[in-house]
Amino acid sequence: MIEPAPPPVQRVRFRRVLLALGTASGDPATVERAAALAARLRGDLLAVYVEDIDVARLAEFASVSTLSTVTAATHPLATGHLRDTLRLQVARLRRELEQAALRRRVKLAFQVRQGRLLAEVLSAATDEDLVVLSWAAGDRVPPPWAAALPPTVVAHGLAAARARSVLLLHAGAPATGSVLIAFDGSEAARHALSLGAQVAELEEAPVEVVLLDGRLDQLEYWRKEIATALAQSHLSLAFVTAPKAGLQALTEIAFYHRSRLLVLDADRALAEGDVGRRLLSRLFCSVLLVR
Fold first, then answer.
1. Which among 1, 136, 249, 273 counts the fewest CB atoms within 10 Å?
2. Could you read off the pLDDT of 200-212 as tens digits, one per residue?
3. Residue 209 lies in a domain
4. CATH no. for residue 99?
5. Does residue 58 belong to any structural domain of this protein?
6. 73 and 92 housed in the same domain
7. What mean pLDDT comes out for the span 260-273?
């Protein structure tokens, strides 16, 4: 009996890369990588800076003080200091984005909104967007007034609301690791494979695919399918067999393999609720939740 040809893995087409920025943003590498992604995906770059409504109200007070969590001492800020600091931050981010877009020959739009990051990004995002969030890590401490939702909470909210796909860029991710992609043969997994492979091409990274089925015939079929789909990309390709692996097992594989990016079907991450969000928040690598 002749085995049917593996179905093709379609390339994901994004109209835009939507870079979500807020008062806690500030990693220059995120700006550059977002512009590079837009160029690679042949889409536009939309940067949405969301000024948290509470911070905006705080900036209107004539007298504002910060409290040190180390010394418990208060430090008064001059009138208008917070407002001017926010304006300078917006101006700096806009300038960095314009320079990155020019280098990459990407069409850029920059919006400033006031509200809540999750709500405003949901309002701006469409099904044809790849949403990118900066994930603060390492020694970088956000300013004391930047009391925003953690990026993993925002990412979960976007994925749950059916935003197209969400990329959490972790500032502390390894620079030379693999792109690790979970694959179970579903249509969602094929989308994850396609987008993960495109990111790997962009960063010249090897690809490792975690096969989530224990049947030998199924595993062999998937290996052929994936190898055929990625043959023209000339990516370094390896497989890991992890039957019925849950999110915890996948995060452990990413850790032991020193992966730079973990690519998941968004529903797989959402299925474990708060436990899944905590697992993702402890990851040292970037995470891509694919719709």
1. 1
2. 988 889 999 999 9
3. yes
4. 3.40.50.620
5. yes
6. yes
7. 86
Q: Where are the beta strands (DSSP E) in the chain?
A: 16-22, 44-52, 64-67, 74-77, 108-115, 129-135, 165-170, 179-183, 207-211, 237-241, 261-265, 286-290
Give CA separation, 226 vs 97, 110, 137, 152, 241, in Å. 35, 38, 33, 29, 14
DSSP 120-155: HHHHH--TTEEEEEEE--TT----TT-----HHHHH
The answer on 163 and 22 residing in a single domain is yes
Structure-block tokens of residue 19: 């870079």
Q: Is the Cα dihedral 99, 288, 165, 193 positive or negative?
A: positive
Instruction: Pull the structure tokens for residue 59.
Output: 């900036």
Tokens standing for 44? 């536009």
17 and 195 Cβ atoms separated by less than 8 Å: no
Is the same domain home to 149 and 42?
yes
Structural domain for 107, as ranges: 16-170
The partner residues of 77 in beta bridges, in order of sequence, read 64
Q: Tokens 């994930």 sit at which residue?
A: 135
| Amino acid occupying residue 128 | E
Chain centre to alpha carbon of residue 86: 24
pLDDT, one tens digit per residue, over 175-218 is: 789 999 999 988 889 989 988 998 898 888 999 999 998 788 88
